[in-house]
Queue: 2 jobs
Job 1
Amino acid sequence: MSDQSKTAISTKEAPAAIGPYSQAIRVGDMLFASGQVALDPATGQLVPGGVTEQTIRVLENVKAVLAKAGLDMIHVVKTTVYLKTMADFAAMNEVYARYLAPEGVVPPARSTVAVAGLPKDALVEIEVIAKE
């Protein structure tokens, strides 16, 4: 694959990449988005509150990256959810369902794992793959 066959997607409506990675990469009709944590794109700070508030911010960040690529949540075909603790699964899942599995929408495939830690000590991180 040549570098020409992939395009970086970047928006100020989501937190800027803070390392050698892109917010998302488009290859053909596929979009591979980096994981998002609950950073407010305006301040760069983790949003206050628990996993519910953080999941909302994470998914708003995901929506912004998708929108920059001309896509929306209905285009998401796979997600990976990283939780600091599985005790937060139900609260995260409630918010997740509103964004990615509203009534009448086929939900994406998903993996959910508990991890020892996340950037900025976040409670949740979500990455997505979308297809145009």
Job 2
Amino acid sequence: MAEISLRKARTIIRKSLEKGREMELKPLSVVVLDAGGHVIAFEKEDGAAPGRFAIAHGKAYGAVMLGMSGSAQMARAEQQAYFMAAVNGVYGGQVVPVPGGILVRDKKGSVIGAVGVTGDTSDNDAEAGLAGIASAGLTGEG
């Protein structure tokens, strides 16, 4: 099974932050997780709130643990709030079911990790993260 290397994780972060600057977003925080939900890399821009790691992590963690993007999780939460509440109980409250949690797939379509971006609107966070993932030659599902 393929995995996200530290080099690719750093590229994802760098390019996500560059996209955020290009879009004139608020300061972003970006985390990259492996397929088991473990942190590979994290960065927060100057001026980002200190609690942003937990939000970025929660977006990515929910994506990789459930195998569904943040936008899909949000739709599920709107349709079945009890399910997402139960999931959050199972995962100790670590799931943040909104856009900005992006599944990362390899060329074969296998999930190899997730990216979490936070700092601006959830949709803008997702756009920046998707740009970072594409820059690393991987496919993002936001």
